[in-house]
What does this fold into?
Amino acid sequence: MTTVDDIDVSQLKEINSLEGSLAQRVYLSLKDAILTLAFPPGAILRKGAICEALGVSRSPVSEAIARLSAEGLVDVIPQSATRASYFSMEEIREGAFLREALELAAVGKVARDCTDEQIAKIRRNFRMQLLSIEDGDFAGFYQSDEEFHAMLMEFTGYSRLKALSQMVSLQVTRARMILLPSPGRAGETVEEHRAIVDAITDRDPARAQAAMQAHLAQLVMRLAPLETERPELFRP
Amino acid sequence: MTTVDDIDVSQLKEINSLEGSLAQRVYLSLKDAILTLAFPPGAILRKGAICEALGVSRSPVSEAIARLSAEGLVDVIPQSATRASYFSMEEIREGAFLREALELAAVGKVARDCTDEQIAKIRRNFRMQLLSIEDGDFAGFYQSDEEFHAMLMEFTGYSRLKALSQMVSLQVTRARMILLPSPGRAGETVEEHRAIVDAITDRDPARAQAAMQAHLAQLVMRLAPLETERPELFRP
DNA sequence: CTTGTCGTACTAACATGTTAGTTGACGTAT
DNA sequence: ATACGTCAACTAACATGTTAGTACGACAAG
It folds into this structure.
């Protein structure tokens, strides 16, 4: 009934517009395609096709795929094929757990040690979120939301934390793509953010952590029904 | 005064005794050499020499080095060389912070959700630790200690957690190699472990987390003087 | 119609060849 | 002696050739 399963069409992001080594650019291009679901779960990644589409040899593609495999975005079937990994509610829960662990530690440290200027920057970002909501600008809100979390990571002073947090929650990020942004949810989100910002302003680590925990729990709750609603994205 | 700096002698672990793909075995061999300080910080890793010593081509070696680079165990100088990374107290502190974040989350979840059999296993491991101490068997205690933490990670049910925790604290693990095991410290360690085990037995997450936090803080404290005591291991 | 075997076509994994950029030594001028 | 420009040797990064293992369809047997 199935032809062979899925085949990958190559509408990859042009690698010339990216920076870094060839392998790095190929990695970013493939990662983008997987996260945006241009390569849906189960799609087969053909090295040959990718090389041709991007105009590079197999070396940088191999390195890129090795990294994606380490991050769990692709499943490499030895000596056979590599496919975009399927969703797995267990992996999503695990990613959310790990992200929570890191974000709680981060927000706790920030509430404890951050400078007045950093608090001011956080509050400025928060006002930006409010403006985006008022304008109904979902794209802008999404961006400010990302910046909000990234800012907290950076203000810990630990350089790897941000990248690590993004890495562990890649599956969550990908699953989040399915969720449609709703006005109601954006309003709730911003209120959850407000609780976090206020706790940080009061330099109250425990309260900031509790607020962050409540905030992150919402995402998992919204993700849970996905398994029954979109079973084709999950492993057969 | 310095010849060229450091050169790498190849007393690498034989790759035939390991399992997995060639690249995986090469990776494990190199990682072991770096963690045991057979390749001291600053030592130059020459692809050619490594290929010859292990009897493989450059492909698996390149992949192995790419992974080590991602984990921060080697610094790749583009188009030039790759060396075993120097210690950095900042990175060690960051590794300890990340590890703490993950272990606290893990021990909290375990204290909350684990089964009676799992508690029994933890207590069994703890008794093993006590026996090793009594016998003055430091190697045995070290191994039980590792198992203790690994066990907590596994009992969360999250498969990637253990590997991730080990990965983020690689620098800490390497620095720990310098610390000599002392009978006094082993005794303290086991008492810190006892507090954790008791809290888990009582299924008291908050107390288990506090005990774990106290335990992990000890290691950072013992690592701190290293920067002045062994400056040659740190970046010039 | 089901089940098992064989063979082919395709792939990842590994080996090797090529390119281009960096480093550091050496000679030269100051 | 010291600062600087040149150049040769070495390296990572990239390209390409080779090997061997897997999946899948055709076909035969039950």
User: Anything to note?
Assistant: Residues 112 and 143 of chain B are 26 Å apart (CA to CA). Chain B has a mean pLDDT of 91. The beta strands of chain B are 74-77, 81-84. The domain at 15-85 of chain B is CATH 1.10.10.10 (Arc Repressor Mutant, subunit A).
